[in-house]
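Per your request, structure below.
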């Protein structure tokens, strides 16, 4: 018996060589092939695939029989029994009674919970271990450095190496706690593959070793330091200036030099399956076996065919006989494998699997865990027109159209592994059969029919369901769409199946152009659901309502239906760079932050603003009219403190932050944080924010912190121009300590064609009141009464612009609403001409287009009908600018929750939206270190 990984002294060489192979076979029971492998060749590790497994009970019995054969054949230690069980669409073992379905790796990351990731991994391992399986081929540590064009898709945690590290390590620990050995894959990376040849050719890594080290290798390095048991090296090619190898798992430079020596991995190294077509065609099995072993692999994987497997074994023997392989290397690898076995198996454990009895005990807990995981993973990326829940947008009796892609079978669920023969004929893109035959699959057509039935159970109206293909939008689709009152379009990896992308966008456009029964335009609700890669439309705002499920298993789609109908409030977030989760404080770079010097930094700040305007981002529009002067108020009642991160050598600004303390109100504002687009995600923004908070905390009498400022009018809060960016920014500020769940939605609004504008019929008369009088005044004679009005309304933050307005008698005026009986001011708003002196502080005001500005509305809280007052002063403002021949007009501030409907009634449309966020200074006192 082997102890502590030592090679048993009685083992002959042939038995030792058998420990160096992991092999698979076909069939759901013990076959002659697997008996030969275990009895004759003493193969010590068996790979089980989806077609080997029918149920938890059958799996338990099969594994037990394999172990008994090994013991009877004289194996001193039990077999390692391995399989893929990545969850989501890649599950080799399925049993609808005993084995639970959990989200894919990326779906798991979308929950935002590392604890949940570990719990899922532990539960998965417990289920496998109950069936006698002691080795899981996971976690996947690949970083999607090119997320949009990679077949790996949601099998990866995401595109952020630190996030992949964090979640991957938690999964690894969960697997180990559940009693199974782990195998990281696919070293050095499957996250950025290029496909240069025909589909059967091996894909190629073109990243340099330096780039790999900074991104793709980060999770592998973290896993090694945390105790990863084994590593699978992929069969991909590498072509860089430093490395040129045909297959990574055959390369001494990759396995021995990089993985073993540089990264100090001491666990078991497993080769990719040598039966992959490109490898066996280019090199041959026996030669490939010798090369893999010489490169540093301990276990050689062959998945299917006995003749090929025998060729591999004979090749290794020949390598020993002719001196190509040194015998000490065999001893070294066998010791590593026996050490792994000693930690995760023994004959006692191998002969007494917990079986279905234990699975029955685990079932209630794991069912709750599965439901919770899927509920937290479903991600609503955007819902511009508030179509969710569907019951709000589509009546229960209305017809709903479901359009799903007629895809080739994709990895989904082992429930349909009997379709494996169909899948095995599909192109493998150079991958080995270890994935293609391990990955269980579900026909898209079947699972989407189930989705249609689940949707129908929630409504009285008809559900129409049809598929679409690369043939595009056909007359059938148009006919069904014209009849339906709403549509759901399913996409499955549309980034690599471009016909799906085009189809979804075409249907979305038709819905936007639809006409109601009265002949007037009426947009039809359209929901696009990505059931595989979330990157299909993550950055495409033309898809107004976009949901991601990360896999299309039955459990995922059942949860989707509950989200669509409001039973579950979706909390999932796009993983990786799309959410831009900040680094932990320990890993954050601290930058030197200096006070802004106008003479020193003015030119550099103007250059920084220009760089931000040139970037391909919706935020560029917010800075369109900004210069250094935009941010400098020079108001005696406002204490300004602005900060920069700068390069003292080149004089460049890397970042800029503004703060304003309004002494009369006691409110401190962080008005802007602007970072050079080329230097984002380097913690410059964090450093500026920390300095701004410390500066505001020093202000005597400060009563409130606010994110956003109304004047200067650049950022009223967190921008909401794009749903993806908005979610990313909200997460960023939440990580800094702001409570973004409590926000005040505000907006700037515009009427773009004031020339043809006219007030709605009857609106002027409806706003007429015998109790209220409206007037337009100019000049400083009205300053004192106006300041009293601002004080009573608690709007001291706009005192500066009101002072500037009364001082600019010819360029500005105040429209007021007064109570008739006592002349008390009830409401006011400024009307500003393009030549107004303070216009440079209102960035949303495009004066070159002949635009007038309605600014800083203040409505008293003592009047019972504030909306009527607001509409009244705005109606006079619009008439004023129309008389002035203004071509358009902008309202620089309005509260969405209070005014949006009334403003749209006047003809305004939204220009930019923001979320004001406030907090108590005590909060920052506790958070900021002394």
């Amino acid at each position: 018996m082997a102890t502590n990984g030592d090679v048993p002294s009685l083992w002959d060489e042939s038995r030792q060589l058998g420990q160096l192979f992991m092999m698979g076979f076909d069939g759901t029971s013990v076959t002659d092939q697997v008996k030969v492998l275990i009895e004759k060749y003493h193969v010590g590790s068996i790979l089980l695939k989806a077609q080997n497994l029918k149920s938890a009970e059958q799996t338990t019995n099969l594994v037990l029989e394999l172990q008994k054969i090994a013991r009877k054949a004289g194996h001193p230690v039990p077999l390692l029994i391995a399989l893929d069980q990545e969850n989501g669409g890649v599950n080799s073992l399925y049993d609808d009674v005993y084995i639970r379905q959990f989200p894919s790796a990326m779906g798991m990351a979308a929950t935002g919970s590392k604890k949940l990731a570990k719990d899922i991994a532990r539960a998965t391992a417990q289920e496998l271990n109950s069936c006698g399986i002691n080795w899981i081929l996971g976690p996947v540590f690949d970083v999607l450095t090119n997320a949009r064009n990679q077949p790996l898709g949601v099998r990866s945690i995401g595109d952020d190496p630190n996030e992949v590290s964090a979640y991957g390590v938690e999964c690894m620990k969960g697997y180990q706690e559940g009693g199974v050995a782990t195998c990281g894959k696919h070293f050095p990376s499957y996250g950025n593959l290029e496909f240069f040849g025909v589909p059967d050719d091996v894909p190629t890594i073109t990243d340099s070793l330096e780039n790999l080290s900074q991104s793709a290798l980060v999770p592998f390095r973290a896993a090694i330091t945390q105790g990863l048991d084994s590593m699978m090296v992929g069969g991909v090619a590498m072509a860089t200036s430093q490395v040129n190898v045909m297959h990574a798992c055959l390369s001494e430079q990759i396995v021995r030099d990089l993985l073993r020596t540089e990264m100090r991995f001491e666990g078991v190294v497993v080769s990719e399956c040598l039966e992959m077509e490109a490898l066996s065609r280019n090199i041959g099995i026996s030669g490939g076996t010798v090369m893999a072993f010489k490169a540093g692999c301990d276990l050689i994987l062959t998945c299917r065919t006995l003749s090929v497997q025998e060729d591999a074994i004979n090749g290794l023997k020949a390598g020993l006989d002719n001196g190509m392989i040194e015998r000490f290397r065999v001893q070294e690898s066998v010791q590593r494998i026996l050490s792994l076995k000693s930690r995760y198996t023994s004959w006692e454990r191998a002969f007494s699997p917990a079986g279905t009895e234990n699975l029955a005990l685990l079932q209630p807990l794991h069912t709750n865990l599965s439901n919770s995981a899927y509920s937290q993973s479903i991600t609503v990326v955007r819902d511009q027109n508030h179509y969710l829940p569907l019951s709000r947008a589509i009546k229960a009796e209305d017809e709903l159209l479901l359009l799903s892609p007629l895809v080739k079978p994709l990895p989904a669920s082992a429930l349909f592994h009997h379709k494996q023969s169909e899948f095995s004929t599909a192109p493998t893109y150079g991958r080995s059969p270890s994935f293609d035959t391990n990955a269980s699959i579900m026909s898209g057509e079947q699972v989407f029919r189930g989705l249609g039935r689940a949707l129908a159970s929630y409504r009285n109206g008809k559900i129409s369901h049809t598929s679409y293909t690369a043939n595009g939008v056909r007359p059938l689709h148009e006919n069904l769409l014209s009849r339906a009152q709403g549509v759901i379009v399913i996409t499955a990896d549309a980034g690599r199946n471009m016909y799906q992308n085009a189809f979804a966008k075409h249907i979305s456009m038709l819905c936007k152009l639809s006409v109601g029964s009265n002949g007037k335009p009426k947009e039809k609700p359209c929901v696009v659901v990505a059931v595989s890669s979330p990157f299909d439309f993550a950055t495409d705002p033309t898809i107004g309502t976009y949901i991601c499920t990360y896999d299309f298993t039955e459990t995922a789609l059942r949860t989707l239906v509950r989200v669509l109908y409001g039973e579950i409030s979706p909390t999932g977030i796009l993983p990786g760079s799309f959410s831009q989760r900040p680094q932990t404080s320990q890993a954050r770079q601290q930058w030197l932050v200096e006070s802004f010097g106008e003479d020193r930094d003015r030119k550099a700040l103007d250059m920084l603003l220009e760089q931000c305007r040139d970037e391909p981002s919706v935020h560029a529009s917010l800075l369109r009219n900004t210069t250094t002067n935009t941010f400098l108020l020079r108001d005696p009642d406002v204490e300004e403190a602005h900060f920069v991160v700068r390069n003292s050598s080149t004089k460049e600004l890397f970042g800029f932050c503004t703060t304003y303390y309004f002494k009369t109100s006691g409110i401190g504002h962080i008005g802007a944080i602007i970072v050079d687009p080329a230097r984002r995600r380097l913690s410059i923004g964090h450093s500026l924010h920390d300095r701004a908070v410390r500066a505001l905390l020093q202000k005597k009498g400060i009563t409130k912190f606010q994110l956003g400022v109304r004047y200067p009018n650049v950022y009223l809060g967190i921008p909401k121009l794009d749903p993806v960016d908005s979610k990313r920014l909200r997460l960023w500020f939440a990580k800094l300590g702001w409570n973004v769940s409590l926000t005040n939605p505000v907006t700037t609004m515009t009427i773009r064609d004031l020339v043809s504008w006219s007030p709605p019929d009857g609106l002027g008369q409806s706003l007429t009141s015998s109790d209220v009088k409206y007037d337009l005044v100019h000049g400083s004679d009205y300053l004192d009464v106006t300041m009293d009005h601002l004080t009573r309304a608690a709007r001291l933050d706009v005192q500066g612009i009101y002072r500037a307005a009364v001082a600019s008698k010819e360029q500005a005026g105040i429209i007021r609403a007064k109570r008739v009986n006592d002349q008390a001011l009830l409401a006011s708003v400024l009307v500003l001409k393009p030549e107004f002196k303070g216009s440079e502080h209102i960035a949303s005001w495009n004066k070159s287009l002949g635009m007038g500005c309605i600014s800083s509305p203040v409505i008293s809280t003592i009047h019972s009908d504030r909306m009527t007052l607001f509409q009244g002063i705005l109606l006079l403002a619009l008439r004023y600018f129309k008389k002035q021949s203004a071509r358009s007009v902008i309202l620089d501030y309005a509260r969405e929750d209070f005014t949006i409907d009334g403003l749209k009634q006047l003809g305004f449309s939204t220009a930019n939206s923001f979320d004001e966020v406030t907090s108590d200074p005590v909060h920052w006192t506790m958070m900021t270190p002394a």
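The two ends are 61 Å apart (CA to CA).

Regards,
D.
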